[in-house]
Amino acid sequence: MKLFALALFYKGPAAACFLTGSFDLQSFSFFQRSSVRQFMVFTGKLIVERSSIPTRATVKEQDYMCHVYIRSDSLSGLAVTDADYPGKVAHNLLSRLLNDFSSQFSSSVWKVQTEAQAQSIDFPALSEYLRRYQDPKTADAMTRVQEELDETKVILHNTIQAVLERGEKLDDLVERSEGLNAQSKMFYRQARRMNRCCTWL
């Protein structure tokens, strides 16, 4: 999972203006980095210009995913990731990033008509977001919790299978059990039947 770029744009009436950005292009050769950076900014501007206000979108471009969030005030964010990076984390990141940016800069600063006017914007937190969100599991609490739940589910499933001896079925154990009363056994059989019916739908 890789986060390559974070960029901010203003979706103006005529065109989108690039405000500022932070890029991690170490995986590209030194001679390609400038071109890759320009292409990422160009792609972001194109997506922002052609998208409605407000919107969240994810666009696939070759091996990369361009996650875009355009707010109702026309402030827009772009996250360029690889295909493995979770889209939900990227969009949560963009929400936080735009909120942080708009709390530091008034709209009069970023509602610009040309990119030359935006060159005075210095937002060092952008590089920190890029660094911190390289590993989505550590940066996003919900992703971390979901992954832990998935791991626990797999462990529990493996544990039940390991407890049962070879060729032994849980159904047979329930029928032979003296610790379950007739009502509990009937409940188990009905639940199994209902679950089997659901798999055929």
UniProtKB/TrEMBL annotation:
It is a lipid-anchor. Residues 8-127 form the Longin domain. InterPro entries: Longin-like_dom_sf, Longin_dom, R-SNARE_YKT6, Synaptobrevin-like, V_SNARE_CC. Its main location: membrane. Residues 1-16 form the signal peptide. Pfam families: Longin, Synaptobrevin. SMART domains: Longin. Gene3D superfamilies: 1.20.5.110, Longin domain. Keywords: Cell membrane, Coiled coil, Lipoprotein, Membrane, Methylation, Palmitate, Prenylation, Signal. One of its GO terms (biological process) is endoplasmic reticulum to Golgi vesicle-mediated transport. GO terms for cellular component: cytoplasmic vesicle membrane; Golgi membrane; plasma membrane. Residues 141-201 form the V-SNARE coiled-coil homology domain. GO terms for molecular function: SNAP receptor activity. It is found in: Cell membrane; Cytoplasmic vesicle membrane; Golgi apparatus membrane; Golgi apparatus, trans-Golgi network membrane. Vesicular soluble NSF attachment protein receptor (v-SNARE) mediating vesicle docking and fusion to a specific acceptor cellular compartment. Functions in endoplasmic reticulum to Golgi transport; as part of a SNARE complex composed of GOSR1, GOSR2 and STX5. Functions in early/recycling endosome to TGN transport; as part of a SNARE complex composed of BET1L, GOSR1 and STX5. Has a S-palmitoyl transferase activity. Belongs to the synaptobrevin family. This is Synaptobrevin.
